[in-house]
Amino acid sequence: MRPWQEDRTRVPIATKIVIAGGFGVGKTTMVGTISEIEPLQTEALMTEASEGTDDLTATPEKHTTTVAMDYGRVTLDDDLVLYLFGTPGQQRFWFMWDDLVRGAIGAVVLADTRRLKDCFPALDYFESSGLPYVVAVNHFDGSSEFDAEDVRDALTVPAHIPVMIMDARRRLPVIETLLALVGHALDATPE
To answer: Domains (ranges, CATH) in the chain?
Structure first.
């Protein structure tokens, strides 16, 4: 039991984090890997209507897509609770991003080295909004491995933005990514 659950005068710091990136990059997986509650997932079966719109070249086994958001919660220490909001990746759902990021302290931009161009809209969004973000390269089985500095150069990510290599299916790398974001957000906006 957490100290704040035993002592109701002690309130944890509740923090909102956004997980963004291109279609099929692992946002739903990341939220599901780390959430200590049953994550809310708004997954819908992909239909023939999306065939000409959604590029499944890198993810041919993908049969569902997020149509609103993913939601999960993780307690990182006795007094820090993160509420995770995964964005939908396709352009036709980007209109929801403004609502999903409202109140967030920062964002994780997931990238897939097989299709780096898919993360540029998220990078542009967070860069222009001023919301602190980190870049997390989600390593997929069978994809080439690159180091963080190579990815930074390819995406022209500024030197002060953390770039990490991770696997969204593994809890520890996800925690490390979230901690890097929290630290970066505190450095960027200490108030």
So the answer is: 3-188 (3.40.50.300)
